[in-house]
């Protein structure tokens, strides 16, 4: 069995900054004021971003506050589901690649994303991609704040559901940032990078990706990169 874990933002879908706006709403609901300091988003977990936003505003990010932040973030993204479907898009080739790999024997597809689980479903569901992956064995920012630990999370969930003992080398992570590549490396997985996000092919190669693709348009090239031994 091969476990293929997809990143969402910048890899499968373009959320046209609506995720950022959801963070801004959540911050204001939790703190009573707008966020003042921009923080990096690409490749990071939602909890990492929330901690950064709070600390830069001089607020202690204790567990109770982070739980409230996650709840408000979920509500803020849910309110934008219709707008996301109207304004955002699935990247060209995303559906075709998911469908094509879904026909491969012994391939299981899920997610490894910094999004909390509820928001991952909203983002894929807006474009009808949620039925093409097994959301139940995905690894999310709500599972662990550190992205590199999420490969292990997905392996454990997959083993519980399918009863198959997989090694990290049986996992392929597909993402669009150097942090996706680093997460794969930390977890012992293969890293396939696509230059559809904010980073170019040379930056992704320098980060140590096993394979780098310009985008997902060439379905067979994606399949080859994912299934290579």
Task: Provide the fold topology.
Blueprint: E1 2-6, E2 13-14, H1 18-31, H2 46-56, H3 63-79, H4 81-87, E3 89-90, H5 94-102, E4 107-111, H6 117-125, H7 150-162, E5 171-175, H8 178-187, E6 190-194, H9 201-206, E7 211-213, H10 219-227
Parallel strand pairs: 1-4, 1-5, 5-6, 6-7
Antiparallel strand pairs: 2-3
Helix pairs in contact: 1-3, 5-10
Description:
- Helix 1 packs across helix 3 and helix 5 packs across helix 10.
- It contains ten helices and seven strands.
- By secondary structure, the protein is an alpha/beta fold.
- It has helices at residues 18-31, 46-56, 63-79, 81-87, 94-102, 117-125, 150-162, 178-187, 201-206, 219-227; strands at 2-6, 13-14, 89-90, 107-111, 171-175, 190-194, 211-213.
- The chain is globular, with a radius of gyration of 17 Å.
- The protein has a five-stranded parallel β-sheet with strand order 4-1-5-6-7, sandwiched between helices.
- The longest helix has 17 residues, at 63-79.
- Strand 6, helix 9 (201-206) and strand 7 (211-213) form a beta-alpha-beta unit.
- The protein has two domains: 2-14 and 89-227, HAD superfamily/HAD-like (Rossmann fold, 3-Layer(aba) Sandwich); 18-84.
């Amino acid at each position: 069995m091969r476990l293929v874990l997809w990143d969402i933002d910048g890899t499968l879908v373009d959320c046209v900054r609506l995720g950022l706006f959801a963070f801004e709403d959540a911050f204001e609901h939790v703190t009573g004021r707008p966020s003042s300091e921009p923080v990096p988003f690409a490749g990071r977990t939602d909890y990492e971003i929330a901690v950064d936003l709070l600390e830069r505003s001089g607020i202690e990010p204790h567990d109770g506050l982070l739980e409230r932040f996650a709840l408000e973030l979920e509500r803020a993204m849910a309110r934008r589901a219709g707008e996301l479907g109207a304004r955002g898009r699935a990247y060209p080739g995303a559906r075709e690649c998911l469908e094509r790999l879904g026909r491969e024997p012994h391939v299981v597809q899920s997610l490894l994303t910094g999004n909390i689980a509820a928001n991952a479903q909203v983002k894929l569901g807006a474009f009808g991609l949620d039925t093409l992956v097994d959301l139940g064995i995905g690894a999310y920012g709500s599972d662990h704040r550190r992205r590199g630990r999420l490969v292990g999370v997905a392996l454990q969930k997959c083993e519980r559901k399918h009863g198959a003992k997989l090694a990290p080398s049986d996992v392929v992570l597909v993402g669009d940032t150097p942090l996706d590549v680093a997460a794969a490396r930390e977890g012992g997985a293969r890293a396939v990078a696509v230059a559809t996000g904010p980073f170019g092919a040379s930056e992704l190669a320098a980060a140590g990706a096993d394979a780098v693709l310009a985008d997902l348009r060439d379905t067979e090239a994606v399949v080859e990169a994912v299934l290579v031994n």
